[in-house]
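Practice problem 4.
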């Protein structure tokens, strides 16, 4: 397994093309066309997926989600980073180094 560089606050995240996403009872379900794998993103993961349809920094994601879900930014950061790292390992997103 390839090691993943930790995601920094100013790193930019965006979806990769080639995934079919459907809303199933309030949760997002996705299929990767290239791998044929299915993913249940859940409701929060689905919201993150929606937000990264356009380039966003990790900080922008955390700020938006912490406000929407009324949680502490640090708790939000831990969960968002873990989710993004999983998506990155699966080849579903692009992460580029911010300034």
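Answer key:
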């Amino acid at each position: 397994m390839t090691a993943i560089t930790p995601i920094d606050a100013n790193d930019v995240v965006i979806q990769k093309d080639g995934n079919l996403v459907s809303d199933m009872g309030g949760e997002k379900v996705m299929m990767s066309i290239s791998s044929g794998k299915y993913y249940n993103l859940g409701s929060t993961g689905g919201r993150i997926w929606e937000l990264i349809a356009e380039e966003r920094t990790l900080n922008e994601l955390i700020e938006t989600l912490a406000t929407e879900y009324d949680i502490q930014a640090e708790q939000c950061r831990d969960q968002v980073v873990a989710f993004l790292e999983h998506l990155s390992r699966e080849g579903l997103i692009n992460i580029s180094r911010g300034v």
